[in-house]
Amino acid sequence: MKRWRLWLLIAVVIACACLPFITQNDYQVRILFRIAIFAALGLAWNLVGGFAGQLSLGHAAFFGLGAYGLAIFTARGVPMWISLLLAALVATLFAAAIGRIAFRLRGPYFTLATIAFAEVLRLTATNLEITGGAIGLDVPTLFAGRSFIRMMYFAAVILALITFLINFATSRSRPGYYLMAIREDEDTASAVGIDTASYKLRALLISAFITALGGALYASSSQHIVPDDAFAMEISVQIAIIAMLGGAGTLAGPVAGAVLLLTASEVFKNQFREGHLLIYGVLIVLVVLFLPDGIVGGLQRLLRRRNPPGSLPGSPDVQPEAGA
Amino acid sequence: MSTVLELKNVSKSFGGLRAVRAASFTMNQGEILFVIGPNGAGKTTVFNLISGFLHPDEGSILFAGHDISRLAPHQTARLGIGRTFQIVKPLSSLTVLENVMLGAFMHTPSPHRAEERADKILDFLEMSRWRNFQARGLPLAALKRLEIARAMATQPKLILLDEVVSGLTTGEALALAQLIQRLPEWGVGVVGGVEHVMQVVMKIAHRVVVLDYGAKIAEGAPAEVVKMPAVIEAYLGPKYREMAK
Amino acid sequence: MNGLLTGALYAVIGMGLALIFGVMRIVNFAHGAFLMVGMYATFVLFDQFHINPYIGFLPAGIVLFIFGYLVYLGLIRPIRNQSHFMQILMTSGIALILTDSAQLIFHADYRQANIDLVSRVLRFGPFALNAAALVSFAIAALLIVGLTLFVTRTLTGQALRAISQNSEIAPLMGINVARIQAFSFALGIAFAGAAGGLLLPALYLYPGVGEDFTTRAFVIVVLGGMGSIEGAAIAGLVLGLAESLTSFYIGNQWALIVDFILFLLVLSFRPNGLFGRQRA
């Protein structure tokens, strides 16, 4: 990591740690908590959607499994923190099953399959007794006391930080390069010896584990869950869009996306009581049209030189060489 | 001269179309062998069968003595079969260097070592000046070389070049052909090519295999093969056969 | 029996998406949202001008055609050659805009178009049939036959099929690809909108009503085999039957799950669709 980036990261972490002490307002801390959670979720999604280029719109499946797992396990007497871990493991197992089927499909079929899995879970949760049907379940709070939401916020920041570091390590290592190769062209990837199915699956498993932890934290902060929230397509879309808006495949992108999108929707929510997702829609359309690499990706592109210079021996139009 | 690759009676059909019919031939250590034939003769299909992108319906493919006819592409790659794609498939948003590093990662998990290896190959293929540019903006001649560079980086025993000079100017093609002749310096045991630019084939091939409608119709030194009536007929149609005689 | 009646509407929705996704290869995640817009358009006609939905669906379809044409030109055409990734994002974005605009304008209230046809029951021996469902079935059947004839018999329809086979050669045959693509996108949207109008008497209307239909439409297209408009029609009927059988024997709430499971099974084992031809 370049020196200045390391300092920037440390500065951001310290700033995140101080934020809840600046405001005494629980409502505002709750917003900060949401931003941190969704930064973590966006970063987790980034492993699959950004690096490996597999557009999952079914991450609500893992989010919901984490949330329901925490509720169900604790209700059966399992200690809270172990329940949290178990819930994440269940989601990871489920991800293995999803991956087996969905990764055989490419392009839009993969995306459709991920949606279908999440929807099957949502509908199942709505209809089963163990999940409390449409009424849902109560979720225990992971922290006791008055400053409970502050503790939740710190937990979310730590999750986001860990996920960021996983992303960072990935981007600098062979697995990260392999995932990017898979994103760009699966045939080429396998021609250089990459077991594409296995790498995609590994990325999904890690992503699912973190997403489930995020879902459990989120559910614990609101203390009650219903299928239409926990397994909602909106969650899946929101996670993907946060990463894409900021810049899929970049490190800072999902964080920037979470800050921007959640702040914007908060402002919008206060203006209009209904239809606050409109801002999401407008932002998505604008990003796709004008910033297809996302905000961070677009900035990187600006900084990078474009037209490669020169030509090869025997080429007809030998251009003057720009110093490369 | 030892056999590196052997195809035994390999057949492959797509629906009703028999793309490859009972083809048998070998590729030997130290050899540059080109598979040639008219359009639709099944040349690229043969390469896809060898590299595991397709699996034969009948027959077997032996590489260094092992049957590889059911292996997946990444497995054949790991055994030492490198390949390029006729329709170039660069990893567009990655840099030229990163494209080549991906090949080098087969033998080292360290990005640093992969980079060193990639730089040497880029230097050999006269691509160093493009090192840090995204692959997507490169001219075709450079993209073709990038395909070769990436395959070379995996240190293959056998490299399969699928029409690497087609679409290039004559000058570009000949310059590249010279480099291909030097591939054995890099430890590449066998160079297999599919090509329809005969000028290049005649110049660098030690041996050619001719396919027509998926079947092998001739095999031998390039200068001899082009005189064979069956080959002339395949390329030009039956009425030229008389003239050739 | 009711399965066939809803199935016919599913067929209309599915054929609309088959035009867009199957033929034009545009991944339209906003299909259900357009259906919802069609429903609201029909509802406004009913509410303000007392136009019966079984007539109102027609102007609604026409409005949606124009709307679809404009959306295509403004938002889809600029990205039609980009990855599916971008198309999915764009159309999800459009879906969000449509759904939440509807929420701003009409609020989240559930609405209903009460027409007396709905409460009238016709008896044929042992079968009891809802008169409204029968009328909507008849209209849907007309739409299905009409679109099939259009695609197979007319010059535009043939041009459309030519493009779906090979969009590079089509222009050489004198086909204006850009116009045909815009046209078929708009036509697909119009069918979604018309189906929405026909659904109005049978469903409660709220801004999110289209969501399930997006996934359902994709299920239908995949089931019917990519690019096959006739396949989509059959698949729509099959899905309607499957859903009503599930509702009857297992329970209403499981119907949608059966859709998805069917979908996942088809994707895993018959990627060319239940009725699709095998391709090399």
What keywords describe this structure?
heterotrimer, A: 324 residues, mainly alpha, 14 helices, 2 strands, globular, C: 280 residues, two-stranded antiparallel ribbon
If you had to describe this structure to a student in words, what would you say it looks like?
The complex is a heterotrimer of chains A (324), B (245) and C (280). Chain A is mostly helical and 324 residues long. Helices cover 72% and strands 1% of the residues of chain A. In chain A, strands 1-2 form a two-stranded antiparallel sheet. The longest helix of chain A has 27 residues, at 196-222. Chain A is globular, with a radius of gyration of 21 Å. Chain A starts with a helix and ends in a 21-residue tail after the last helix. Helix content of chain B is 36%, strand content 25%. Chain B has ten helices and ten strands. A six-stranded mixed β-sheet of chain B has the order 6-7-8-3-9-10, with helices on both faces. In chain B, strands 2-1-4-5 form a four-stranded antiparallel β-sheet, covered by helices on one side. In chain B, helix 3 packs across helix 4, helix 3 (96-104) packs parallel to helix 5 (140-153) and helix 4 crosses helix 5 (140-153). The model of chain C has no long low-confidence stretch (mean pLDDT 81). Chain C has helices at residues 2-23, 31-49, 53-76, 84-106, 116-119, 131-153, 155-165, 177-199, 211-224, 229-249, 255-269; strands at residues 121-124, 127-130. The radius of gyration of chain C is 18 Å and the shape is globular. The chains are: A mainly alpha (324), B alpha/beta (245), C mainly alpha (280). Chains in contact: A-B, A-C, B-C. Chain B binds chain C through residues 14-15, 17, and chain C through 278-280.
Write a short abstract of this structure.
The complex is a heterotrimer of chains A (324), B (245) and C (280). Chain A is mainly alpha-helical and 324 residues long.
Biggest chain pair interface: A-B, 34 and 52 residues
Strand count, sense and barrel status of the largest sheet of chain B are: 6 strands, mixed
Helix content of chain A: over 70%
Question: What is the helix content of chain B?
Answer: 25-40%
Mean pLDDT of chain B: 88
